[in-house]
Amino acid sequence: MRYAYGLTSALLVGGAAISLIGGYPAGAQTAQNEGLQMERAVPRAGAPESFANLTEQLQPAVVNISTRQEVQVQANNPFAGTPFADMFGNRRGRGSQQPQTQEAQSLGSGFIISADGYVVTNNHVVSPGRNGTITEITVKMPDGKEYDAELVGTDAQSDLAVLKIQGGENFPFVKFGDSDQARVGDWVIAIGNPFGLGGTVTSGIVSAVLRNTGSGGAYDRYIQTDASINRGNSGGPLFDMQGNVIGINNAIISPTGGSVGIGFAIPAEIAAPIVDNLRKGIEIERGFLGVGIDRVDEDLAASLGLEKNLGEIVQSVQPDGAAEKAGIKPGDIVVEVNNKRVTPQQTLSFLVANITPGTRVPIELYRDGKRRTVQATIGKRPSEEELASQQMFDPDADAEMPQEDDNGAIEEKLGLQVIPLTGQIANSLGASSDTTGLVVAAVSRTSDAARKGLRRGDIILTANYVDVPTLSALEQVISEAESDNRDAVLLRVQRRGLPARYVAVRLR
């Protein structure tokens, strides 16, 4: 399990277009949450007196999942480089021994979705660690019976996996509900296997719907709950008071590693169609635009005079990708995709990922203060391995540069000392000879620029989309921003080894 603090979620180990899947065929077998006797489970008025009847009916379909893995580890030879090195199997006599195999285990939760034994869990519950191979998956029922399970399909991006129990029949199962109907304050219960203890039930309420944690990605969109969720709960179901699975417990935010009342579940509206495709062996294809993006925060919106909490700024455009072919450029503010608004709850990544590759859609954006529409043919998202290989390395950008004695308004308003970019400095920073702009020579520690990560050696290419080859050009942009009662200036900054990006810096 990885722990997190702040805005990073922690996994709880021990696109297809969205269309809700109501259930799975199971012959004459009846789902555990079919025809639930509501008068017994939850009184119609007020909070439930007890979750006992609800739990009794649902718990048989929730299982514990364990895996065995073989992991290759490098064994160091304490006698390497001595006459005794060969005694430990290192015939080459230099460095370390041959890799050794060790056994590892993982524990998590899951739930059965059909009478013939299909099980849903998180991908990270059943995926091997680094240099590891899964050798065995075991599903343990609440009554203690154990079954071998086969891995049917996984999807790393949504963190979902489907298993098939080997042997047995007429398993108790549950169905997905409609997570769109979940409201903040609704009662929920979580059933799972925290800390390997076995079937455990916790209760709470929905703390937030469509929660964006800031971790990025197409599926950074969760149901947040204060029901206690801990290590080993991962992959278990989050039930509403009708006994429907509205979420799959997935992550927590915690400074301690244990539950502090902030848990996240993958909504059923996202999980159900992906699970259905995995079960059928259908490849999960997601849309891809080929852009690097950031959210439009308050400062960026202020620098451009835009509405808050709307849109995302394009920081970079992948060559020959869908965005470049559509004419999208760095600095564009994308506000709608296929007539759906881009918001913190409905991000650009989420909207694009859930568009079938090859589909042509309108994209609304702002450029130079004007709203315009472009048509984009959505591409297919590369694999996670391909995306990782496209990342660029960030070397040390510091360079020897003379200090400027007086930057006037620039230093006073932005907390920056800058100097004109010369050919010699551009070469030392790895920039092309035709690059124009200003180089950051120093950053005030108390400035917003420092808080936004600007540092010595960064090249300021534009300010509020205006080229700034001289100090006076930047001073003029600052003056105009103040005249327009704007609280920030949008800088386009180039750092060695990285694509140019936009940063909104608040005026002092």
Helix content: 10-25%
Radius of gyration: 27 Å
Q: Find the CATH topology of the largest domain.
A: Thrombin, subunit H
Mean pLDDT across every amino acid position: 83
- The share of residues in extended strands comes to 25-35%
Distance between the termini: 43 Å
Order of strands, main sheet, comes to: 8-9-10-13-12-11
- Which class of the largest domain in CATH terms? Mainly Beta
Q: What is the number of helical segments per DSSP (H or I, 4+ residues)?
A: 12
Largest sheet: 6 strands, antiparallel, barrel
Give the overall shape. elongated
Tell me the total number of β-strands. Answer: 27
Please, what is the CATH homologous superfamily of the largest domain? Answer: Trypsin-like serine proteases
Whole-number count of domains: 4
Class by helix and strand content?
alpha+beta
| Proper CATH architecture of the largest domain | Beta Barrel
Detail the poorly predicted runs.
1-9, 15-26, 91-96, 391-405
Family: Belongs to the peptidase S1C family.
Organism: Pontixanthobacter aquaemixtae
GO biological process, one term: proteolysis
Catalytic activity: Acts on substrates that are at least partially unfolded. The cleavage site P1 residue is normally between a pair of hydrophobic residues, such as Val-|-Val
